[in-house]
Specification:
The protein has three domains: 166-280, Butyryl-CoA Dehydrogenase, subunit A, domain 2, CATH 2.40.110.20; 283-528, Butyryl-CoA Dehydrogenase, subunit A, domain 3 (Up-down Bundle); 531-578, no CATH class. 52% of the residues lie in helices and 12% in strands. It has 22 helices and eleven strands. The chain starts with 13 loop residues before the first helix and ends with a helix. It binds flavin-adenine dinucleotide.
């Protein structure tokens, strides 16, 4: 008898195989844009399977190395990066991952098209998206703030061939969340030039050609208001560092192929972007972009992992059945699939909003809530999802040469960079205190409930886990699944599950996609419960209360804040005015 050999899970072209991604793009893009962009999506789906996959595997197993001193004792601070990783960056640039929104072929939908391609590129990229996201953000800042620097650098950064990349140096030892503590000094050197002096504690992609850096002009005072934003080239024309010494490369949990270094700046020649001052406000549009890159990166991790988990469930057997035929395993995958659907709605909603803002048709107030919320929710849920995904492979998910543990390690970084989860939450709260923002957000919530606006609501997001389970059964069982569903016993079970998941789904979608309606009829499942379930002991009453914020003064739940969209008259009195 032949020894047992397990077939490995196989990836396929995600644009064709991932119905969630495809349907989201199809729903959010006008038909003619979807038709024009489909070849781009399909090409990237294919590309990510072939050459890119091999390059990514090579890059992941050959992390960058810092060579401080050469063979003859000269200080060189060379960072040797695997050529496979550099090739992945180049493939991304050639495919227009940075260029698409600036070429503007798809108008206000350019961002959705760009992020669709990024989504398909990501799983085989060995986190080469990091320098590309910062490049994209740098272009936006230069276009917004400094015509001369934009003329000099934007064509290089947005080229498809031999393009440059940009870093983004904000974090220092004293603080990454609290950039007001930035210690790097900027000294005026005359003729519009400055020199920078200090330490940048996290600098990713030290392979970049230029970087944007926050620094404090000498004598400008304390705090974040005294900061300015500078542009520097990393290398002098002769190839030596521009006043930069590499302390060391970070030894990280994940993003192994990405060179992240600690750098000392001593006399680094730089120019102020848009003159001196307003450093932090100039960075804000940059964060809108990099945060969506982080959210879509998290989405890709779930989508890529889910595709492998489904394939494995079709191949692996336990207790005489395929994993796909084990109800508990099916439900395990279905829960992840439902989260993934909701995350798709949210991620591409944010991408559309960004594109609309760049074309002056979007609501910038709304973006102040939606973008940090999107980054926070999807990045956090992707850690949960990738943890569950690697478990769906059993022990194989924990073994390095399957490539699966990387999913979880790399998902984690998206929670941290561009601001941690708590920092995102505080950004949302801060935005909600600004005039106009709560009104814009609630109007968007109402519009989605009434079914207006871009049609991006997902039935799975609305109905939660139950829908995911049924979809999963259809996907994994094909005709047999349909036959099973026809049985009377199965119908009874499905009805029970619908009743149960209607409630679970509502809780679930409030967490992930707060503006989608709680049920197809627009009625809250909680409100439709029989009255007797809401009355009774004080314990059961407290459990039936909606979990809406407490009033700050009393610290107790207030019936007047029952829901952000219901009870309009009362809300007008208690919710911050728009
Ligand atoms: C792989 C990697 C690459 C990176 N690359 C770059 C890069 O290229 N450029 C760059 O500038 N940075 C980079 N960073 C840094 C990253 O942006 C910061 O680590 C991040 O912003 C957090 O800052 P910090 O590390 O100083 O943590 P801190 O700001 O010290 O935060 C520590 C903890 O305190 C919490 N916290 C902070 N403030 C508050 C608050 N007000 N209320 C509640 N909780 C709070 C945070 O949520 C966190 O849990 C990178 C990080 C990683 C991991």
């Amino acid at each position: 008898m032949d020894p047992f050999l397990q077939d490995a899970p196989q990836a396929s072209n995600r644009f064709r195989a991932d119905a969630t991604l495809r349907n989201t793009l199809e729903r959010i893009l006008p038909p003619e844009v979807f038709a024009d962009a489909s070849p781009l999506f399909d090409d990237m789906g294919e590309h990510a399977l072939g050459e890119m996959r091999a390059l990514a595997q090579h890059a992941e197993t050959h992390p960058p190395v810092h060579v401080p001193i050469d063979a003859w004792g000269r200080r060189v601070d060379r960072i040797d990066v695997d050529p496979a990783w550099l090739q992945l960056v180049k493939i991304g640039q050639d495919a227009g991952l940075v260029a698409i929104p600036y070429e503007d072929e798809f108008g206000e939908h350019s961002r959705v098209v760009q992020f669709g391609v990024i989504d398909l590129w990501n799983p085989s990229s060995a986190t080469a998206g990091c320098p590309l996201s910062m490049t994209d953000a740098a272009v936006r800042v230069l276009l917004n703030e400094d015509e001369d620097l934009a003329k000099a650098y934007v064509p290089k950064l947005t080229a498809r061939a031999n393009a440059w990349t940009s870093g983004q140096w904000m974090t220092e030892k004293e603080g990454g969340s609290d950039v007001g503590r930035t210690g790097t000094l900027a000294r005026e050197a005359g003729d519009g030039w400055w020199t920078l002096h200090g330490t940048k504690w996290f600098t990713s992609a030290t392979t970049a050609d230029i970087s944007l850096a926050l620094a404090r002009p000498e004598g400008a005072g304390e705090g974040s208001r005294a900061l300015s934003l500078f542009l520097l080239e990393l290398r002098n024309p002769d190839g030596t560092w521009n006043g930069i010494a590499v302390r060391r490369l970070k030894d990280k949990l994940g993003t192994k192929a990405l060179p992240t270094a600690e750098l000392d700046l001593d006399g680094t020649a730089a120019r102020a972007i848009g003159g001196i001052g307003r450093g932090v406000p100039k960075v804000a549009p940059m964060l809108n972009i990099t945060r969506i890159w982080a959210a879509i990166g998290s989405l890709s991790a779930i989508g890529g992992g889910l595709m492998l988990a489904r394939d494995y469930a079709n191949k692996r057997e336990a207790f005489g059945r395929k994993l796909r035929d084990l109800p508990v395993h099916r439900r395990w995958i279905a829960r992840i699939a439902a989260e993934y659907e909701a995350a798709n709605v949210l991620g591409y909603r944010a991408a559309l909003l960004l594109g609309q803002i760049e074309h002056a048709s979007g609501d910038a107030d709304l973006a102040r809530v939606v973008i940090p919320l999107t980054k926070m929710a999807i990045a956090r849920r992707s850690v949960w999802a990738t943890s569950n995904l690697i478990e769906s492979f059993g022990g194989a998910g924990y073994v390095e040469d399957t490539g699966l543990p990387r999913l979880l390690r790399d998902a984690h970084v998206n929670c941290i960079w561009e601001g941690t989860t708590s920092v995102m939450a505080l950004d949302v709260l801060r935005a909600l205190r600004a005039p106009g923002v709560p009104g814009a957000f609630l109007a968007d919530v109402d519009a989605k409930r009434l079914g207006h606006g871009p049609h991006v609501s997902s039935r799975a997001a609305v109905r939660g886990r139950g829908m995911g389970a049924r979809q999963e059964r259809r996907r994994t069982h094909g005709d047999r699944g349909r036959a099973l569903r026809g049985r009377a016993v199965d119908r009874r079970r499905a009805a029970r599950r619908r009743r149960r998941d209607g409630r679970a789904g509502f809780r679930h979608q409030r967490r992930i996609a707060p503006w989608t309606s709680p049920s197809a009829s627009g009625r809250s499942p909680r409100r439709s419960r029989p009255f007797k379930q809401r009355s009774g002991s004080s314990k059961s009453r407290s459990r039936s209360r909606p979990r809406w914020p407490t009033t700050r003064a009393s610290g107790r739940w207030s019936p007047r804040r029952r829901s952000p969209t219901g009870n309009r008259k009362r809300r007008a009195a208690t919710w911050p005015a728009s």
